[in-house]
Amino acid sequence: MRTGYVLSFLAAALTVMAKPHVKPAKPDPNFHIYLAFGQSNMEGAGPVEFQDRIEEERFKLLSTVDEKCMGRNLGEWYSALPPIVSCYGNLSPVDYFGRTLVKELPDVTVGVVPVAIAGCDIQLFEEDNYQTYEVPDWMEGRIVSYGGNPYRRLVNMAKKAQEAGVIKGILLHQGETNNGQIDWPDRVKAIYDSILDELDLKAEDVPLLVGETVRAEYDGLCSLHNEVIATLPQVIPTAHVISAEGLEPQGDNLHFTSQSYREFGARYAEVMLDILKNQTASAKPKKPTKPVKPTKPVHPVKPIKPFHH
After folding, report:
1. What does pTM read for this prediction?
2. Which tens digits make up the pLDDT trace of 104-163?
3. Which residue is catalytic, options 107, 137, 200, 252?
4. pLDDT in tens, 23-42
5. Are residues 114 and 169 in contact, defined by beta-carbon separation less than 8 angstroms?
6. d(CA 56, CA 101)
7. Which residue of 49, 92, 98, 142 pairs with 59 in a disulfide if CB–CB is 3.0 to 4.6 A?
8. Which CATH number fits domain 28-283: 3.30.420.10, 3.40.1790.10, 3.40.50.1110, 3.30.590.10?
9. Which of the following is catalytic: 223, 255, 258, 260?
10. 8 flagged as catalytic
11. Chain Cα centroid distance, residue 287
C-alpha cells in the first residue's frame, strides 16, 4: 500500500511538472473599463422599463457586490442590465453611458465597475476618514454589501478589471449630501488622486466626468451644489462637468426621471467620446516634414586687384 501511494504521488508530481507554464492573458486594449461612484443618482432611482432590459452584447458589468436579486457574484463579469450598480438601485446614468459608447465604438467592449450608496456624504469614500462616518440605520445594509469600505471595494474591483481591459475614465455623481460645501472639490481631488495612484494610472489618460445635480430651474433641492461642481476643473484639470440642463426630476426634485437618466448617461458618453477622439489625435505620430533642399553655394566674388599708379 505504501509503495503504491509513493508511486501515485510521484506520478502526480511528474504530471504537474510536465504541464507547460501558461502566461496570463494580457488586458484587451479594446475592452474599455470605467469606474463609477457616488450616491443615489449614481446608484440609480429611475424606474426600469422594457427598453432598458434589451441586452447590449458589448456592454459588461463587473459585479462589486454579491447580488441575490440578479444572481450575480462578486468579482465576476455579466451583461450590464439594470439595476447595474446594486439591488438597491434602478436605472442610472451608467446604463446609457455604456449603451451610447458601444453604439459609437463598434470595435470596443465597454465594462463598468460601479460603487454607489444612496444618501452618502463624500466622507464615505475617504479611506482615512470613512470609519468615523455616522451611518443611519437604513444605509447600513448598503455599506455592508461593499465590505464596509466602499472605496476599498471600488479599488479592489478596479484592479481585477485591469486584468481584462484598460481603465479609460471615472464617472462621479455625488454631492447632494455635501450641498454647497466649498471644500468638496478638494476632497474629490484627494479621492481621484488616490485611485489613480493605487491603480498606476495617469490623470491625462483617465479623466473624471462629474454630473450636475437637479438644476435650479426645476427647483432642485441641491441645485446650489452645481456652483461648487462648476469649480472642479480648476482643482482637477482633467475633470469635466456634465450638464443637467433640461433634465427633469421626479416629484422629489432630487432624483431624475428615467428619461432624464437616459439622456444624462448619453451626455456622459458624448463627453467621453470627444476625449477619446482628442487622445487618439494627439497619439498619432506627426508626419515628418520634408527636408529642405540645400541651396547652391554662392561662389565668392573674386577680389579686385588693387590698381597701382
Report:
1. 0.85
2. 999 999 999 999 999 999 999 999 999 999 999 999 999 999 999 999 999 999 999 999
3. 252
4. 557 999 999 999 999 999 99
5. no
6. 11
7. 98
8. 3.40.50.1110
9. 255
10. no
11. 33
